Amino acid sequence: MLKLGVPSKGRLMEQTFDWFAARGLRLSRSGSDREYAGRVDGADGVQLVLLSAGEIPRELAAGRIQIGVTGSDLVREKLPGWRSDVRELAAMEFGHADLVLAVPACWTDVETLDDLAAVATAFRRAHGFRLRIATKYHRLIRAFLSENGVADYQLVDSQGATEGTVANLTAEAIADITSSGATLRANHLKMVDGGLVHQSQATLFAANSADPAEVDRLARHLGLAG
Ligand SMILES: Nc1ncnc2c1ncn2[C@@H]1O[C@H](COP(=O)(O)OP(=O)(O)OP(=O)(O)O)[C@@H](O)[C@H]1O
Ligand SMILES: O=P(O)(O)OC[C@H]1O[C@H](OP(=O)(O)OP(=O)(O)O)[C@H](O)[C@@H]1O
């Protein structure tokens, strides 16, 4: 039996259901909109579990589900060394979003990452504390800034409405997901050149601990190569 974890709400859930339907598997909730169990028609030995997108990486790594759909950003953020826990079966071509670094649009002296590094150092000298970057993507942002020579900063945790933290004076910069760019613009923020951290999309993952024969059987059923 393969347990398939799918996001429990919103666009990601609907587009996941559509993606499987186009490949002959009908996923549906078994009861009301509030019930987090479901059924799978069109394949034997697959059980549907509806979960928070953010919890699917951990559930895969723990072996409580064998297959899961979530954003590629969330797997990289939640699982250190993610390749040792999961493998990608298919990029699903929806849920596209860019994880980016952004600063106030009025910071005319910051266009590039090098500018940000210089301003961060000057900021620390002037204020006696490090420039604050609000994000929920702590692991990805730390790794990215370290690779790009930005050192004088601190992360402040923001689990939602991250673009508002600058106006609320709890951060000087942010790192968050953008797709249309509307939220950044509405909050008077601009992306830093070279500040694209990850291009995310919904992805079908298999746990490395899952039975390879069972995973391959499902992958073939879905028409996935390899
Ligand atoms: N505006 C957007 N457009 C496209 N994809 C997005 C957008 N915002 C977030 N995403 C993607 O959706 C996925 C889920 O995002 P998020 O962690 O915000 O989940 P959520 O809907 O708040 O669910 P939960 O709180 O249950 O985990 C992530 O992979 C993220 O990249
Ligand atoms: O570039 P845009 O098209 O404006 O999209 C970006 C916004 O979408 C996401 O928020 P969402 O409303 O999905 O929820 P969240 O606040 O829980 O992240 C993300 O966190 C941004 O705030």
TrEMBL record:
NCBIfam families: hisG. It is an enzyme of class 2 (transferase). It holds the Pfam family HisG. The keyword Cytoplasm does not apply. GO terms for molecular function: ATP phosphoribosyltransferase activity. Pathway: Amino-acid biosynthesis; L-histidine biosynthesis; L-histidine from 5-phospho-alpha-D-ribose 1-diphosphate: step 1/9. The gene is hisG. Residues 53-221 form the ATP phosphoribosyltransferase catalytic domain. This is ATP phosphoribosyltransferase. Its EC number is 2.4.2.17. It catalyses: 1-(5-phospho-beta-D-ribosyl)-ATP + diphosphate = 5-phospho-alpha-D-ribose 1-diphosphate + ATP. Catalyzes the condensation of ATP and 5-phosphoribose 1-diphosphate to form N'-(5'-phosphoribosyl)-ATP (PR-ATP). Has a crucial role in the pathway because the rate of histidine biosynthesis seems to be controlled primarily by regulation of HisG enzymatic activity. It comes from the Bacteria. Keywords: Amino-acid biosynthesis, Glycosyltransferase, Histidine biosynthesis, Transferase. InterPro entries: ATP_PRibTrfase_cat (IPR013820), ATP_PRibTrfase_HisG (IPR001348).
